[in-house]
Each structure stands twice: as C-alpha cells, then as structure tokens.
Amino acid sequence: MESRVVGVLGAGQLGRMFVEAASRLNVQVRLLDVGPSAPAKQISFVPAADGTTSEHVDGAFTDGEKIKELAKKVDVLTIEIEHVNASQLQTVLDEGIVKEVHPLPSTIALIQDKYAQKKHLVAQGLPVADFVAVGGESLQGTSASAQIEGVAAAGKQFGFPLMLKSRTQAYDGKGNFVVKEAGNAEEGVKALGNGSRGLYAEKWAPFVKEVAVMVVRSSTGEVRAYPAVETIHRDNICHTVTAPIRTSDPRIPQQAREIAERAVATFGGAGVFGVELFLMADGQLLINEIAPRPHNSGHYTIEAAETSQYENHLRAILGLPLGSTALKVPSTAMVNILGLSDLDTDKDAIVKTMAPAVASLAVPGATVHLYGKVGCRKGRKIGHITVVAQSDAELHQRMEPILHALETATE
Ligand code: ATP
Ligand code: MG
Ligand code: MG
User: Fold this and answer.
1) How would you classify the pairing of strands 29-33 and 6-9?
2) 3-state class of 121 per DSSP?
3) Confidence of residue 250 (pLDDT cuts 50, 70, 90)
4) pLDDT by residue (tens digit) across 254-298?
5) What's the distance, Cα to Cα, between the start and end of the chain in Å?
6) DSSP E strands: which ranges in 20-81?
7) Which positions make up the signal peptide (predicted)?
8) Are 380 and 373 within 8 A, CB to CB?
9) Is 281 left (phi over 0), alpha (psi -120 to 50) or beta?
10) Which of 288, 299, 338, 380 is the pocket-test mutation for ligand 1 (most atoms within 8 Å of CB)?
C-alpha cells in the first residue's frame, strides 16, 4: 500500500508504539536514537546489506550529522520528541535530502520554546494563563540577578505562588519551579540554570482538572480531535488518564476539543499533537502547552479509539486518509508504570515496579504495554496499562486491583 520509508527522530516508547502501528500497514521505519537497543529499535530490526548491522541510526537526535544520515535513508521524517535539532531538519528539507518533514521544522522550533509557543497562542486568540518573560527575552538567559528581579516583578503582577518555567528542554516538570513567595525567587532561579537559560513566569492556574486533547492534522490542514480526557499528574508526571472526561457542565468537553482543534490548525505540517489544558472553577479552559507528536495522554487510543494516535500520526504524515477519532468503548483509563528505584539492578524494586502489570493480567479489558527499558530507574516511564469498560462503574471496578497493586508497591 505504501512504499515510502519513514524516519523517526527518537526511539523511545512513543517510537515503539509508532513502529507497532506502522508494521501493521507494512510501512518501513528507520529510527535515530542513541544505542542499538532503544525501545523502538528492539522491535524493528532492519538488516543492512551485510545482513547483520542495522539500517537504524545510532546517535543523538540533536546531532546534525546523524540527522542527515537518517534523512538520506528515508522519504519522510518525523519526531517522537520535540527536543531535536530543528534547524538541521530545516536544512535537510531545504537541501532536498528528504522530501518531507512532519510537523514542519518551524513548528517544532516554535513549540520547543514554551515562551514563544505561548506568545503564538495569544496572537492566535487562544486562551492561556497570563505569563511574562523573566530577566529579558534571551533564550540563553541573562544573569541570575536580572532573573531574580524579573521574578519579583512577575510576583507583583501575578501574585504568589507563581510558576517559573524554563523556556526550553522541559519535560515531566523538570523545567518548572513553584515560587511560593517573593523570598523563593533566588532558589527558583538557581534551580533553573542560575541565569544561564531563558525563563518565563506564569500566573498560577488553580485548576479543578487537567484536560488533554489529542488532535490529528492532515497535510492539507484538516484537524480532527479525539475526545477530551482527564489527566492526573503526580510529581509533575502523568499518573492516570480517563476518557472521556466527565464534567458537571456537559459543554466543556466539546469546548476543549474546539480550542485544541483551533490551536493545532495554526501549526504547519502534518501529524498528531497533544494539547494540555487547565479547566478552571468557572468553566474556563486555558491551554497549558502543546506537544507536536503522539502524547502520553493519548496512549489509551490504541485500545479505546477507532484509530490509534500512532496510526493517525502515520496516516497524517503520509497524506493517507485520516482515521476516525471516536471512542469505541464508553469508558477507558490508562495508568503509567513508573520505575521505583534508582538502582537499575535492584531485583526487589523491579518486582514491585511490575506488580500492577502482573495484576492487570487478571483484569478483563486490561492491556499492558511494557517498553523494554533497562532497569527501573526511579520515576522513569517503564510501561502503561489501559483498561476499557462498558461503563464508568465497570471501569472503576476493573481499575481497582491495578491501582491497589500500584499503591501497595509504592508504599
Ligand atoms: P510535560 O512532561 O507535559 O512536557 P512540562 O515539563 O513541559 O511537562 P508543564 O506541562 O508546563 O511541564 O507543567 C507540568 C505540570 O505543572 C502541569 O501538568 C500542571 O500540573 C502544573 N502546572 C504547569 N503550569 C502551571 C500553572 N501556571 N499553574 C498551576 N500549575 C501549573
Ligand atoms: Mg512539556
Ligand atoms: Mg506538560
């Protein structure tokens, strides 16, 4: 059906689930990531001409030369992580080394900088929490003292607490610092690079729920939202996702989808995007941030939607007809399995980490995904479990033994 070869920057769990979707459609994928045993490479060995080495590329997705090497092997390039070398993606496209890059390198670059991303959303009339640059607009930062002054000024504007954020390289809350009061400004600046990285401050959003919407965008600009879901974070890492979201005002899920579609329509290039939102007490929805790729909050689509986010990403970047984004079950949830120990060889911790996965094997409607990561480093995403059900009540019943195993293991 499709002879074009797809290259992916990054070969972690998102790449692995993308490879699974591609393999069903018999689409050839080549991956770039450090090491030959990255999660996605494990499930897709492509022998080179000599029959033993692999066609995948071993190297960093930030390494320009490695990106070029991958580009030469494929027709279409995409990403599973946004922290890539976007200017080199633009170069390989401009030089005709690869025919297409999705989403566009300019979109990836815009989204990489969370401050620029927010400015873009505001310019497009989309709702976000108030924010302001801290200590100047330079991406490289200025000085710690200028940033401390900037936090104080932001505090005067927004009050405390406020969220201090690193503009780039953020994930799992690692670029964030909650400045509880004026006296914590120095601590926050120190924690986020001490003046060496561009920062911005956001007004605290006392949300009642966190919402996420996956949206697929075709190369011609058609956008299709998946249902709005509720995400619960623990220590800034996604813990559970339930779909569809239940809200007291039944209009809210549709409003979230519309905002997410409007936002994704503003970005160039095809593919799936994850839109994170805050639902406020008065029913207002604010966009928190957008990921230009499949997203943790969309894992549930593999079992619970007509077309998974991974297959729709593939269809979008290849210009194939998009698949339905509707749920095929009334109720579904996903729980992440996180590593429990800093010691990768800690056998007891490995057994405990796997306890919810083992428990899920006895649960009807549960599907476990393990990513093939080595060891179980604390806080690392090792796998996830999705449960589908015919009602919310059945979902709760089915989730119970899995969540119980998780709580017992983490006690
Ligand atoms: P991800 O892993 O999703 O890329 P990230 O490191 O980019 O995360 P954010 O999504 O900006 O970080 O923030 C992480 C979490 O911190 C949010 O999911 C939310 O729970 C909380 N948070 C972020 N911004 C605010 C805010 N302005 N007010 C209150 N809480 C916030
Ligand atoms: Mg982020
Ligand atoms: Mg986030």
Assistant:
1) parallel
2) helix
3) very high
4) 999 999 999 999 999 999 999 999 999 999 999 999 999 999 999
5) 50
6) 29-33, 57-58, 76-79
7) none
8) yes
9) alpha
10) 288
